[in-house]
Amino acid sequence: MKLLVTGGLGFIGSNFIRLMLHEHDDIQILNIDDLRLGSNPENLLDLNENPRYTFCKGDIADARFIAGLIKDADAIVNFAAETHVDRSIARPDSFLHSNVKGVFNLLEALRHHNSSARFVQISTDEVYGDILSGSFTEESTLKPSSPYSASKAAGDVFVQAYARTYGLQAMVTRCTNNYGPYQFPEKLIPKTILRAKSGLRIPIYGTGQNVRDWIYVIDHCRAVQAVLLRGRKGEIYNISAAEEKTSRFCRGSAGP
């Protein structure tokens, strides 16, 4: 398999690339990343000498660039995205650029140059908005509450539309909060650990009673792998570890 991964220098993407190279001896991976704020070249620095791994700097919102690389791919997994809610409130235009225009370019390139390739769009459960009780399902209404989640929801809808209209082998995964190696330090768990080790105050959003579901990043990557290999065209797959915790619990369990 020739696998094209976008955003592979980010937290989840880099873990996914390591998993796929480890578990599939016959896979070739091309990693496209624009080296923005959430990217860290050191995440995969040790793979630079691996003959089955290639890195290419580029922006998925550059239509000509993407079209030139997508022709020979057997499958594409799109991790590339702007993801931070607070930044989306301050600068929503960059989220439209990556999370909507970028996804559109990938779909258009597939439609015109490689319609048989499998495509997995990595999304988020935040497209569903807030919930007071129970759990979301794949049929739940989209109620995004920030420019970030709105841009991800828009990308998801484009994926479903292209699967139905043009017959692309495209699927969407929506996962809950991840934690694990290579996570960007602005996120809740690494920020809490780093501040606790330094003896600094740990911020709590709201009352600290808001509930999040947490999944180890490798478990998420294994679910994405399953969707890539066995998922069905046009389907949405929610991914969760059923580990719901309040922010206060996370703070209390992340001490020095």
What does the model show?
- The chain is of the alpha/beta class and about 260 residues long.
- It has a single domain, classed as NAD(P)-binding Rossmann-like Domain (Rossmann fold, 3-Layer(aba) Sandwich).
- The protein is about 40% helix and about 20% strand.
- It is built from 8 helices and 10 strands.
- It has helices spanning about 10-25, 65-70, 85-90, 90-115, 145-165, 190-195, 215-230, 245-250; strands at about 1-5, 30-35, 55, 75-80, 120-125, 170-175, 175-180, 210-215, 235-240, 245.
- The protein has a 7-stranded parallel beta sheet, with helices on both faces. A 3-stranded mixed beta sheet has the order 7-8-10.
- Helix 5 links the parallel strand 5 (about 120-125) and strand 6 (about 170-175).
- Helix 1 packs across helix 7, helix 2 runs parallel beside helix 4 (about 90-115) and helix 4 packs parallel to helix 5.
- It is globular and about 50 Å long.
- The model is unreliable at about 250-255 (pLDDT under 50).
